[in-house]
Specification:
Shape of chain A: globular
Radius of gyration of chain A: 18 Å
Largest sheet of chain A: 6 strands, mixed
Largest interface: A-B, 36 and 27 residues
Oligomer: heterodimer
Shape of chain B: globular
Mean pLDDT of chain B: 82
Helix content of chain B: 10-25%
Number of helices of chain A: 9
CATH architecture of chain A: 3-Layer(aba) Sandwich
Strand content of chain B: 25-35%
């Protein structure tokens, strides 16, 4: 799958939230076409990493570099990062009262197209793409008439994130604990969404607490993150080892 | 340190963001500044008014002089004392007011309105909307006259109605808002210059939306329009008003009075897009919008519905109200009031239930950004005669940033035990999480904020006629510029 083109390069990243340092000299390089999983115990900094990559202003970068497809990311607003092809599936998708799904998704697609020098999609074209994507992730028409995440169940919110991933079709998909809180059917839909998305022309960074999702999503690399940095990297077998032994044997090293 | 605070970042709002702010050079026919019996007589003479109307004006003026030092001070707004002698009470942009047809309208004037997005020429008329355009104190053009005449609907400047339909005007003028009603209504009764008059005959459903477009152009001129709408038995009319004013460093006063009368089984739908100049980002200039609007559901089963989108004016002080006199009558008030920078708004409604089985609905959405303050002030009054009256009130406030304010002041007075009232109120903030989530999908911060605010207002916009809803939504966007970022 790998074609050796670097999509994401994180160098010596130090970052904090509310004056507490979370990421400590964090390093990671991903090639185009690769799927990476970051696993780790609660509080190890996994979600911080995901938020920093997407540019959440609540997280402050103290030093370090992030390059995405050859461009530096740290000076760019979240919407620009999105337009460059970086997508974050949220751990806690946010409710937007009164904002219709359709309108939200159309604006998203059109803004990104505009940034990349393309005309907005006609309503007809957009609808046919949207319907196709909705079908893939088993989302009904009624769902699209609702307001963004308003009154959605936990599983619906996560499926909505996968719908957006499928529709937006980014270069890099970062999934922040998208698997947590899902029953087995929802987990399958979400996992299928990720596997269907994955291609030699994009990359996936899957942040997760549990090994469970790796029964469905097959990563090329598994990294273990403890206390703000990667302490061990390996292939899928590392995840199975973690399942058996937990994280303690790594953090004690 | 965390400096994500939404308000403190550089604001992009410049004065020229008020795109309606250009001014036009006409040769105005101005009365001297100041308020006096002579000025009132001059206005009345310019308009060639009958004696009863002049007498009514003078009665109002005398009352106003008596109360001159008793400006209302109860509203949650602050502004320097107005010098009423420093205002011009009559200004006509041309020397030939009241053109008979569009051919007589000054071409410069037509150009001016086209620039404002209100084309008046026959070939470019807004489709399905009859427009009465009012510049300063004088009505300059009314479109779609023929269709209206065929339906028997009268839609003309009130000055013209005084000439052509004096009995109707005399019967209803001041019947809902008496000249003694309040300080600004009294002033308006003395010096009102123009405004719209509508009469819809029994059983007629007005074939087009009626619209009046108001603009204050002349420096130091007050606009005191007077609108009177009468829907006779079983008729229906939908009326829209839009307002702008040029950018001025000084404050301009706008003190209008609007009276609506719905007879048996009649319905009036009144929509406002108020976009008077709000002042610059430092709070300099802007229109004082002190308006008295009231409707009377005079007959059984009648209905009056107010929908307002208030984004302009330095200060807004208005409470479009309904007197529910006829049995089974219905009053509605749907409002979005947005304030940014240093704007202030104290707005709401009054629902006075008199008849049996009367019903009222109030849905008010207040949005505050910048250092602005908005207050919802509403009264629901159930009189002893109003058996089985119902009211539902919902007041929602949305805050953008942490330097603005929202206040809700409901008054409820119930004198009949069969009444049922509900009141709901919420206050929320556009959260950083909402903005980040939306931005992460490629939508700019400004657009994200606009989208969230628009979602908050959705229930109100659907009450507006379609084209107006789009315009309202665009106004919201312009007014929100610089609110985040």
């Amino acid at each position: 799958m790998t074609n050796n083109k670097i999509i994401l390069e994180i160098k010596n990243l130090n970052a904090s939230v509310a004056n507490t340092q979370i990421l400590k000299d964090f390093n990671l390089t991903m090639n185009m076409g690769e799927k990476h999983t970051i696993m780790g115990p609660n509080g190890s900094g996994k979600s911080t990493l995901a938020n920093i990559l997407a540019g959440n202003p609540e997280y402050i970068v103290d030093s370090g570099e992030i390059n995405f497809l050859g461009q530096t990311l740290l000076d760019k607003d979240p919407d620009i990062r999105a337009c460059l092809g970086l997508f974050l599936a949220f751990q806690y998708p946010v409710e937007l009262p009164g904002v219709r799904m359709w309108q939200f998704l159309k604006s998203s697609i059109d803004s990104q197209r505009e940034y990349n020098g393309k005309d907005p999609l006609s309503t007809k074209d957009f609808d046919s793409i949207l319907n196709e994507c909705a079908e893939k992730v088993d989302i009904s028409q009624d769902f699209l008439k609702r307001n963004v995440n308003e009154g959605f169940s936990g599983g619906e919110k996560k499926r909505n994130e996968i719908l957006q991933l499928t529709l937006i079709n980014p270069k890099l998909a970062i999934l922040d604990e998208t698997d947590s809180g899902l029953d087995i059917d929802a987990l399958k839909i979400v996992s299928n969404g990720i596997e269907n998305f994955s291609s030699p022309n994009n990359s996936v960074l899957l942040v997760t607490h549990y090994q469970r999702i790796l029964n469905y999503v097959k990563p090329d690399y598994v990294h273990v993150m403890i206390d703000g940095k990667i302490v061990k990297s390996g292939d899928k077998s590392l995840a199975l080892e973690l399942e058996k032994k937990g994280y303690d044997w790594l953090s004690k090293k | 340190m965390n400096n994500k605070n939404v308000i403190s970042r550089n604001t992009k709002l410049e004065d020229n963001n008020y795109k309606w702010g250009f001014d036009f050079n006409f040769n105005p026919d101005n009365a001297p500044k100041g308020l006096s019996e002579d000025i009132v007589k001059l206005i009345s003479k310019k308009k060639n008014e009958p004696k009863w109307l002049l007498d009514w004006r003078l009665k109002s003026l005398n009352l106003w002089f008596k109360n001159e030092d008793n400006e209302p001070e109860w509203a949650n707004i602050k502004f320097p004392k107005i010098d009423f002698q420093d205002i011009r009470y009559y200004s006509s942009p041309t020397n030939k007011p009241n053109p008979k047809s569009l051919d007589e309208v000054d071409p410069e004037m037509l150009k001016a309105f086209t620039k404002l997005g209100i084309p008046l020429e026959e070939q470019k008329k807004l489709s399905g909307v009859a427009v009465d355009a009012i510049m300063d104190s004088v009505s300059v053009a009314t479109t779609y006259q023929k269709q209206l005449e065929d339906a028997g609907v009268i839609f003309c400047p009130i000055s013209e109605a005084v000439q052509k339909y004096p009995e109707l005007v005399q019967k209803y003028l001041g019947s809902v808002v008496p000249y003694s009603d309040n300080f600004y209504a009294t002033l308006n009764s003395a010096v009102f210059t123009d405004g719209s008059f509508i009469y819809v005959p029994p059983g007629v459903r007005c074939p087009v939306e009626l619209m009046t477009y108001f603009r204050i152009n002349e420096l130091d001129t007050g606009q005191f329009e007077r609108t009177l709408i009468i829907a006779d038995k079983g008729s229906y009319v939908s009326y829209l008003e839009g307002c702008t004013a040029p950018f001025r460093k000084t404050n301009q006063l706008h003190a209008a009075v609007v009276e609506l009368i719905a007879l048996e089984d009649a319905e009036i739908k009144y929509s406002t897009l108020q976009n008077w100049f709000p002042g610059d980002k430092n709070g300099i200039g802007g229109v004082y919008n002190f308006v008295t609007k009231r409707g009377k559901c005079a007959g059984k089963n009648s209905k009056i519905s107010w929908t307002q989108v208030e984004t302009g004016s330095a200060i807004t002080w208005k409470y479009p109200s309904v007197i529910l006199q006829g049995d089974n009558s219905i009053g509605e008030f749907y409002s979005v009031a947005l304030v940014n920078n240093f704007q202030q708004a104290d707005t709401g409604t009054k629902m006075i239930h008199i008849g049996k089985n009367t019903k009222s609905t109030i849905i008010a959405k207040g949005i505050s950004a910048g250092k602005a303050n908005s207050t919802y002030r509403g009264m629901v009054k159930i009189l002893p005669s109003a058996k089985n009256a119902r009211n539902f009130t919902q007041c929602d406030s949305l805050l953008i940033g942490d330097k603005c304010g929202a206040h809700t002041i409901p008054y409820i007075e119930v004198k009949n035990p069969t009444a049922q009232l509900e009141h709901e109120a919420t206050t929320s903030k556009v959260s950083d999480n909402q903005l980040f989530y939306t931005q992460q999908r490629g939508i700019s911060l400004e657009d994200a904020n606009y989208m969230i605010v628009n979602g908050f207002c959705k229930g109100i916009f659907k009450e507006l006629p379609f084209e107006f809803a789009i315009e309202a939504s665009q106004l919201l966007r312009v007014s929100l510029e610089g609110a985040v970022g």
